[in-house]
Write a structure and sequence with these properties.
The protein is mainly β. It is built from three helices and 36 strands. It has a 34-stranded mixed beta sheet that branches. Strands 17-21 form a two-stranded parallel ribbon. Strand 1, helix 2 and strand 2 form a beta-alpha-beta unit. The relative contact order is 0.06.
Protein backbone atom coordinates (compact mmCIF):
# COMPACT_ATOMS: atom_id res chain seq x y z
CA UNK A 1 0.00 0.00 0.00
CA UNK A 2 1.40 3.44 -0.90
CA UNK A 3 2.61 5.59 2.00
CA UNK A 4 0.07 8.29 1.15
CA UNK A 5 -2.80 5.82 1.57
CA UNK A 6 -1.40 4.59 4.86
CA UNK A 7 -1.15 8.22 6.06
CA UNK A 8 -4.76 8.96 5.02
CA UNK A 9 -6.05 5.93 6.84
CA UNK A 10 -4.09 6.92 9.90
CA UNK A 11 -5.59 10.39 9.89
CA UNK A 12 -9.07 9.01 9.37
CA UNK A 13 -8.61 6.62 12.29
CA UNK A 14 -7.45 9.41 14.53
CA UNK A 15 -10.44 11.56 13.61
CA UNK A 16 -12.82 8.66 14.19
CA UNK A 17 -11.27 7.97 17.60
CA UNK A 18 -11.54 11.65 18.59
CA UNK A 19 -15.21 11.77 17.55
CA UNK A 20 -15.99 8.61 19.52
CA UNK A 21 -14.19 9.97 22.56
CA UNK A 22 -16.15 13.21 22.37
CA UNK A 23 -19.41 11.28 22.14
CA UNK A 24 -18.53 9.11 25.11
CA UNK A 25 -17.34 12.00 27.28
CA UNK A 26 -20.84 13.28 28.23
CA UNK A 27 -21.88 9.75 29.17
CA UNK A 28 -18.82 9.36 31.33
CA UNK A 29 -19.51 12.70 32.96
CA UNK A 30 -23.18 11.78 33.44
CA UNK A 31 -22.17 8.52 35.13
CA UNK A 32 -20.28 10.45 37.77
CA UNK A 33 -23.41 12.48 38.61
CA UNK A 34 -25.07 9.58 40.45
CA UNK A 35 -24.11 8.56 43.96
CA UNK A 36 -25.37 5.59 45.97
CA UNK A 37 -26.44 5.09 49.59
CA UNK A 38 -27.45 1.95 51.49
CA UNK A 39 -28.50 1.34 55.12
CA UNK A 40 -25.16 -0.21 56.04
CA UNK A 41 -23.02 1.58 53.51
CA UNK A 42 -19.49 2.67 54.40
CA UNK A 43 -18.01 3.52 51.01
CA UNK A 44 -17.58 6.65 48.94
CA UNK A 45 -20.94 6.32 47.17
CA UNK A 46 -19.46 5.76 43.72
CA UNK A 47 -21.42 2.52 43.16
CA UNK A 48 -23.83 0.18 44.92
CA UNK A 49 -20.88 -1.94 45.97
CA UNK A 50 -19.20 1.15 47.45
CA UNK A 51 -22.45 2.68 48.75
CA UNK A 52 -22.15 5.52 51.26
CA UNK A 53 -24.05 5.90 54.52
CA UNK A 54 -27.05 8.20 55.02
CA UNK A 55 -25.12 10.20 57.61
CA UNK A 56 -22.88 11.35 54.71
CA UNK A 57 -25.83 12.93 52.85
CA UNK A 58 -24.55 16.53 53.14
CA UNK A 59 -21.08 15.74 51.79
CA UNK A 60 -22.63 13.69 48.98
CA UNK A 61 -24.84 16.61 47.97
CA UNK A 62 -21.79 18.90 48.06
CA UNK A 63 -20.11 16.61 45.51
CA UNK A 64 -23.08 17.12 43.18
CA UNK A 65 -23.19 20.90 43.14
CA UNK A 66 -23.38 20.75 39.35
CA UNK A 67 -26.55 18.65 39.57
CA UNK A 68 -27.15 14.92 39.90
CA UNK A 69 -28.91 12.38 42.05
CA UNK A 70 -28.39 10.34 45.18
CA UNK A 71 -30.07 6.94 45.12
CA UNK A 72 -31.14 5.36 48.41
CA UNK A 73 -31.42 1.57 48.26
CA UNK A 74 -34.97 0.85 49.37
CA UNK A 75 -34.80 -2.97 49.31
CA UNK A 76 -31.95 -3.51 51.76
CA UNK A 77 -33.61 -2.62 55.06
CA UNK A 78 -34.44 0.54 57.00
CA UNK A 79 -32.34 3.64 57.53
CA UNK A 80 -31.86 4.83 61.12
CA UNK A 81 -32.22 8.61 61.27
CA UNK A 82 -31.06 8.88 64.86
CA UNK A 83 -30.98 12.58 65.75
CA UNK A 84 -31.50 13.59 62.12
CA UNK A 85 -29.32 14.78 59.24
CA UNK A 86 -28.13 18.38 58.80
CA UNK A 87 -27.83 19.58 55.19
CA UNK A 88 -26.10 22.80 54.16
CA UNK A 89 -25.34 21.96 50.52
CA UNK A 90 -27.60 22.06 47.48
CA UNK A 91 -27.90 22.34 43.73
CA UNK A 92 -28.92 25.16 41.43
CA UNK A 93 -32.11 26.13 39.63
CA UNK A 94 -30.98 24.49 36.39
CA UNK A 95 -29.10 21.65 38.05
CA UNK A 96 -30.93 20.45 41.17
CA UNK A 97 -29.80 17.55 43.33
CA UNK A 98 -32.30 14.71 43.67
CA UNK A 99 -32.47 12.33 46.62
CA UNK A 100 -34.76 9.38 45.94
CA UNK A 101 -35.50 5.82 46.96
CA UNK A 102 -35.06 3.02 44.42
CA UNK A 103 -34.64 -0.73 44.26
CA UNK A 104 -31.39 -2.25 43.07
CA UNK A 105 -32.68 -2.16 39.49
CA UNK A 106 -33.19 1.61 39.75
CA UNK A 107 -37.02 1.54 39.79
CA UNK A 108 -38.73 3.97 42.22
CA UNK A 109 -39.35 2.41 45.64
CA UNK A 110 -39.92 4.14 48.95
CA UNK A 111 -36.92 3.88 51.25
CA UNK A 112 -37.91 3.60 54.92
CA UNK A 113 -36.32 6.21 57.22
CA UNK A 114 -37.03 5.57 60.89
CA UNK A 115 -36.58 8.20 63.59
CA UNK A 116 -36.48 8.04 67.38
CA UNK A 117 -40.01 9.19 68.26
CA UNK A 118 -41.49 7.01 70.99
CA UNK A 119 -44.86 7.28 72.73
CA UNK A 120 -45.77 10.92 73.31
CA UNK A 121 -42.19 12.17 73.07
CA UNK A 122 -41.79 14.55 70.14
CA UNK A 123 -38.66 12.94 68.72
CA UNK A 124 -35.98 14.42 66.46
CA UNK A 125 -36.36 15.66 62.90
CA UNK A 126 -35.43 13.84 59.70
CA UNK A 127 -33.61 16.19 57.31
CA UNK A 128 -32.74 19.69 58.61
CA UNK A 129 -32.17 22.08 55.72
CA UNK A 130 -29.98 25.10 56.50
CA UNK A 131 -28.87 28.06 54.39
CA UNK A 132 -27.30 26.73 51.20
CA UNK A 133 -29.57 23.70 50.89
CA UNK A 134 -31.24 25.09 47.76
CA UNK A 135 -32.84 23.23 44.87
CA UNK A 136 -33.12 19.84 46.50
CA UNK A 137 -35.67 17.27 45.33
CA UNK A 138 -36.69 14.50 47.74
CA UNK A 139 -38.88 11.64 46.53
CA UNK A 140 -39.91 8.06 47.29
CA UNK A 141 -39.15 8.15 51.00
CA UNK A 142 -41.22 6.68 53.83
CA UNK A 143 -40.75 8.36 57.21
CA UNK A 144 -41.64 6.58 60.45
CA UNK A 145 -41.43 7.77 64.06
CA UNK A 146 -40.11 11.25 63.24
CA UNK A 147 -40.46 14.46 65.28
CA UNK A 148 -40.97 18.08 64.26
CA UNK A 149 -40.29 17.80 60.55
CA UNK A 150 -39.53 14.83 58.36
CA UNK A 151 -38.12 17.76 56.43
CA UNK A 152 -37.36 20.78 58.62
CA UNK A 153 -36.51 24.03 56.81
CA UNK A 154 -34.22 25.77 59.31
CA UNK A 155 -32.77 28.51 57.09
CA UNK A 156 -33.76 30.62 54.07
CA UNK A 157 -33.74 28.34 51.01
CA UNK A 158 -35.34 28.11 47.57
CA UNK A 159 -36.36 25.45 45.10
CA UNK A 160 -37.38 22.68 47.52
CA UNK A 161 -39.45 19.85 46.03
CA UNK A 162 -40.87 16.89 47.98
CA UNK A 163 -42.79 14.24 46.07
CA UNK A 164 -44.22 10.74 46.47
CA UNK A 165 -43.41 10.36 50.16
CA UNK A 166 -45.28 8.65 52.99
CA UNK A 167 -45.23 8.99 56.78
CA UNK A 168 -46.55 7.36 59.95
CA UNK A 169 -46.40 8.33 63.64
CA UNK A 170 -44.88 11.78 63.20
CA UNK A 171 -45.16 15.14 64.91
CA UNK A 172 -45.10 17.17 61.69
CA UNK A 173 -44.17 16.35 58.09
CA UNK A 174 -42.84 19.72 56.84
CA UNK A 175 -41.68 22.22 59.44
CA UNK A 176 -40.41 25.76 58.84
CA UNK A 177 -38.65 27.23 61.90
CA UNK A 178 -35.33 29.07 61.84
CA UNK A 179 -32.31 27.44 63.36
CA UNK A 180 -30.27 28.86 66.20
CA UNK A 181 -28.11 31.17 64.06
CA UNK A 182 -30.72 32.17 61.45
CA UNK A 183 -32.86 35.30 61.50
CA UNK A 184 -35.56 33.62 59.45
CA UNK A 185 -36.19 30.55 57.34
CA UNK A 186 -38.23 31.85 54.42
CA UNK A 187 -38.91 29.19 51.82
CA UNK A 188 -39.39 30.31 48.20
CA UNK A 189 -40.39 28.47 45.04
CA UNK A 190 -41.35 25.17 46.67
CA UNK A 191 -43.64 22.25 45.86
CA UNK A 192 -44.99 19.32 47.89
CA UNK A 193 -46.81 16.68 45.82
CA UNK A 194 -48.39 13.28 46.45
CA UNK A 195 -47.35 12.89 50.08
CA UNK A 196 -49.67 11.11 52.50
CA UNK A 197 -49.74 9.37 55.85
CA UNK A 198 -51.34 8.91 59.25
CA UNK A 199 -50.91 9.27 63.03
CA UNK A 200 -49.87 12.90 62.77
CA UNK A 201 -49.84 14.68 66.12
CA UNK A 202 -49.32 18.35 65.30
CA UNK A 203 -49.78 18.84 61.57
CA UNK A 204 -48.87 18.01 58.01
CA UNK A 205 -47.04 21.27 57.45
CA UNK A 206 -46.33 24.73 58.82
CA UNK A 207 -45.08 27.52 56.51
CA UNK A 208 -43.81 30.75 58.08
CA UNK A 209 -41.83 33.99 57.68
CA UNK A 210 -41.99 35.50 54.16
CA UNK A 211 -42.21 32.14 52.42
CA UNK A 212 -43.73 32.44 48.96
CA UNK A 213 -44.62 30.81 45.65
CA UNK A 214 -45.56 27.40 46.97
CA UNK A 215 -47.73 24.57 45.71
CA UNK A 216 -49.09 21.77 47.89
CA UNK A 217 -50.84 19.26 45.67
CA UNK A 218 -52.50 15.83 46.09
CA UNK A 219 -51.42 15.46 49.73
CA UNK A 220 -53.32 13.97 52.65
CA UNK A 221 -52.82 13.49 56.37
CA UNK A 222 -54.75 11.72 59.12
CA UNK A 223 -54.38 13.40 62.51
CA UNK A 224 -54.07 11.78 65.90
CA UNK A 225 -56.13 13.34 68.69
CA UNK A 226 -54.07 15.58 70.96
CA UNK A 227 -55.23 15.57 74.58
CA UNK A 228 -54.69 19.17 75.64
CA UNK A 229 -51.27 20.59 74.82
CA UNK A 230 -50.43 22.21 71.51
CA UNK A 231 -53.06 23.05 68.91
CA UNK A 232 -53.15 20.61 65.99
CA UNK A 233 -53.51 22.09 62.49
CA UNK A 234 -53.35 19.97 59.37
CA UNK A 235 -51.87 22.76 57.24
CA UNK A 236 -50.85 26.03 58.89
CA UNK A 237 -49.66 29.30 57.33
CA UNK A 238 -48.20 31.97 59.59
CA UNK A 239 -46.36 35.32 59.56
CA UNK A 240 -46.18 36.83 56.03
CA UNK A 241 -46.27 33.65 53.97
CA UNK A 242 -47.88 34.43 50.62
CA UNK A 243 -48.76 33.22 47.13
CA UNK A 244 -49.45 29.63 48.11
CA UNK A 245 -51.85 27.19 46.46
CA UNK A 246 -53.32 24.04 47.98
CA UNK A 247 -54.78 21.70 45.38
CA UNK A 248 -56.67 18.45 46.02
CA UNK A 249 -55.40 18.10 49.59
CA UNK A 250 -57.26 16.28 52.38
CA UNK A 251 -56.78 16.95 56.11
CA UNK A 252 -58.67 14.58 58.39
CA UNK A 253 -59.11 14.35 62.17
CA UNK A 254 -56.96 17.15 63.61
CA UNK A 255 -58.46 17.29 67.09
CA UNK A 256 -57.59 18.74 70.47
CA UNK A 257 -59.39 16.89 73.26
CA UNK A 258 -59.79 18.40 76.68
CA UNK A 259 -58.43 21.76 75.68
CA UNK A 260 -58.72 24.26 78.52
CA UNK A 261 -61.62 26.61 77.79
CA UNK A 262 -61.82 25.87 74.10
CA UNK A 263 -61.07 22.79 72.03
CA UNK A 264 -59.01 23.93 69.05
CA UNK A 265 -57.89 21.96 66.01
CA UNK A 266 -58.23 22.94 62.33
CA UNK A 267 -57.85 21.20 59.00
CA UNK A 268 -56.40 24.22 57.14
CA UNK A 269 -55.52 27.61 58.60
CA UNK A 270 -54.02 30.90 57.47
CA UNK A 271 -53.42 34.09 59.42
CA UNK A 272 -54.07 37.79 58.89
CA UNK A 273 -50.52 38.46 57.66
CA UNK A 274 -50.80 35.93 54.86
CA UNK A 275 -51.88 36.93 51.35
CA UNK A 276 -52.75 35.47 47.97
CA UNK A 277 -53.79 32.09 49.39
CA UNK A 278 -55.87 29.63 47.36
CA UNK A 279 -57.53 26.35 48.27
CA UNK A 280 -58.64 24.34 45.24
CA UNK A 281 -60.67 21.12 45.54
CA UNK A 282 -59.47 20.52 49.10
CA UNK A 283 -61.26 18.63 51.88
CA UNK A 284 -61.24 19.12 55.65
CA UNK A 285 -62.89 16.54 57.90
CA UNK A 286 -63.31 15.84 61.59
CA UNK A 287 -61.62 18.84 63.23
CA UNK A 288 -62.58 19.99 66.72
CA UNK A 289 -62.75 23.60 65.51
CA UNK A 290 -62.62 24.83 61.91
CA UNK A 291 -62.33 22.75 58.80
CA UNK A 292 -60.99 25.82 56.97
CA UNK A 293 -59.97 28.63 59.34
CA UNK A 294 -59.01 31.50 57.05
CA UNK A 295 -57.97 34.89 58.43
CA UNK A 296 -56.12 36.31 55.42
CA UNK A 297 -57.62 38.92 53.12
CA UNK A 298 -58.88 37.89 49.68
CA UNK A 299 -58.51 34.18 50.38
CA UNK A 300 -60.04 31.97 47.67
CA UNK A 301 -61.76 28.63 48.28
CA UNK A 302 -62.79 26.85 45.08
CA UNK A 303 -64.61 23.49 44.94
CA UNK A 304 -63.74 22.72 48.57
CA UNK A 305 -65.60 20.36 50.91
CA UNK A 306 -65.72 20.62 54.69
CA UNK A 307 -67.36 17.89 56.75
CA UNK A 308 -67.92 17.01 60.41
CA UNK A 309 -65.98 19.92 61.84
CA UNK A 310 -67.48 22.17 64.50
CA UNK A 311 -67.55 25.09 62.08
CA UNK A 312 -66.91 23.82 58.60
CA UNK A 313 -65.80 27.14 57.11
CA UNK A 314 -64.42 29.99 59.25
CA UNK A 315 -63.51 33.16 57.37
CA UNK A 316 -62.28 36.37 58.98
CA UNK A 317 -60.48 38.60 56.50
CA UNK A 318 -61.66 41.15 53.95
CA UNK A 319 -63.17 39.89 50.69
CA UNK A 320 -62.87 36.11 51.04
CA UNK A 321 -64.44 34.15 48.17
CA UNK A 322 -66.10 30.72 48.36
CA UNK A 323 -67.13 29.20 45.02
CA UNK A 324 -68.81 25.81 44.50
CA UNK A 325 -68.05 24.74 48.07
CA UNK A 326 -69.88 22.04 50.06
CA UNK A 327 -70.54 21.94 53.82
CA UNK A 328 -71.67 18.68 55.42
CA UNK A 329 -72.95 17.81 58.90
CA UNK A 330 -71.07 19.98 61.42
CA UNK A 331 -70.20 18.11 64.63
CA UNK A 332 -69.68 19.52 68.13
CA UNK A 333 -67.08 17.81 70.30
CA UNK A 334 -66.62 18.77 73.92
CA UNK A 335 -68.73 20.75 76.40
CA UNK A 336 -71.30 22.87 74.51
CA UNK A 337 -71.23 25.50 77.28
CA UNK A 338 -67.56 26.14 76.51
CA UNK A 339 -67.22 25.38 72.84
CA UNK A 340 -69.72 27.78 71.24
CA UNK A 341 -72.27 27.15 68.54
CA UNK A 342 -71.78 24.91 65.56
CA UNK A 343 -72.59 26.07 62.05
CA UNK A 344 -71.74 25.56 58.42
CA UNK A 345 -70.15 28.97 57.70
CA UNK A 346 -68.83 31.24 60.46
CA UNK A 347 -67.94 34.87 59.71
CA UNK A 348 -65.52 36.78 61.91
CA UNK A 349 -64.21 40.31 61.61
CA UNK A 350 -66.29 43.47 61.62
CA UNK A 351 -65.31 44.46 58.07
CA UNK A 352 -65.59 41.01 56.49
CA UNK A 353 -67.34 41.11 53.11
CA UNK A 354 -67.71 37.52 52.02
CA UNK A 355 -68.65 36.43 48.49
CA UNK A 356 -70.26 32.98 48.32
CA UNK A 357 -71.59 31.41 45.14
CA UNK A 358 -73.14 27.98 44.52
CA UNK A 359 -72.96 26.82 48.11
CA UNK A 360 -74.17 23.28 48.86
CA UNK A 361 -75.33 22.44 52.38
CA UNK A 362 -75.96 18.83 53.45
CA UNK A 363 -77.18 18.30 56.98
CA UNK A 364 -79.22 15.74 58.91
CA UNK A 365 -80.03 18.11 61.78
CA UNK A 366 -80.72 21.53 60.24
CA UNK A 367 -77.71 23.16 61.92
CA UNK A 368 -77.55 26.96 61.32
CA UNK A 369 -75.96 27.73 57.97
CA UNK A 370 -74.47 31.12 58.89
CA UNK A 371 -73.17 32.61 62.10
CA UNK A 372 -71.65 36.10 62.50
CA UNK A 373 -69.36 37.21 65.31
CA UNK A 374 -69.54 40.94 64.44
CA UNK A 375 -72.42 43.17 63.39
CA UNK A 376 -70.60 44.91 60.54
CA UNK A 377 -69.88 41.80 58.43
CA UNK A 378 -71.96 40.64 55.48
CA UNK A 379 -72.26 37.93 52.83
CA UNK A 380 -73.09 38.32 49.14
CA UNK A 381 -74.78 35.02 48.33
CA UNK A 382 -75.30 33.84 44.75
CA UNK A 383 -77.01 30.49 44.75
CA UNK A 384 -77.36 27.82 47.43
CA UNK A 385 -78.58 24.23 47.36
CA UNK A 386 -79.89 22.80 50.62
CA UNK A 387 -80.24 19.12 51.52
CA UNK A 388 -81.56 19.61 55.05
CA UNK A 389 -84.70 18.70 57.03
CA UNK A 390 -85.65 22.40 56.99
CA UNK A 391 -84.15 25.77 56.20
CA UNK A 392 -82.13 27.25 59.05
CA UNK A 393 -80.10 30.24 57.89
CA UNK A 394 -79.21 31.19 61.46
CA UNK A 395 -79.67 34.53 63.25
CA UNK A 396 -79.51 36.60 60.07
CA UNK A 397 -81.60 38.84 57.88
CA UNK A 398 -81.61 38.36 54.14
CA UNK A 399 -82.39 40.99 51.51
CA UNK A 400 -82.27 40.87 47.74
CA UNK A 401 -79.63 42.84 45.86
CA UNK A 402 -80.08 42.28 42.16
CA UNK A 403 -79.39 38.63 41.41
CA UNK A 404 -77.66 38.21 44.76
CA UNK A 405 -78.91 37.93 48.29
CA UNK A 406 -77.29 40.07 50.96
CA UNK A 407 -76.95 38.28 54.31
CA UNK A 408 -76.32 40.29 57.46
CA UNK A 409 -76.40 39.46 61.17
CA UNK A 410 -79.77 40.04 62.79
Amino acid sequence: MPAASRLAISRRSVLTWLAASAALAPSARAATRTLYVSPRGSGDGSSWRAAANLRDIDSLIARLRGGGEILLAADQGEYALGEGCDIESGGSERQPVRVRGVDRAGAPMQAVLRGNRRGRAQGDEGFRLHSGADHLHFSHLRFRDVGNGCVHVAGPISGLTIEDCAFDNIYRFLENTAGEHERHASLSGFAVRRCSGSRVERGFLRIRYASSNGLIEDCSAQGRANRGGSIPEGCALEDDANTIVYRRCVMDGFQQWRGLDYWNGDGFSDESGNSNIRYESCQARGSTDGGFDCKSDNVVLLNCTSEANKRNFRVWGRRPTLTNCTSRNPVLRGNPLQQGDICHVWIGGDDARVSISNLTVEDRDAVPIFEFSEDGASIELSGATLHTPRENWGRVRISHQGEQELVRPD
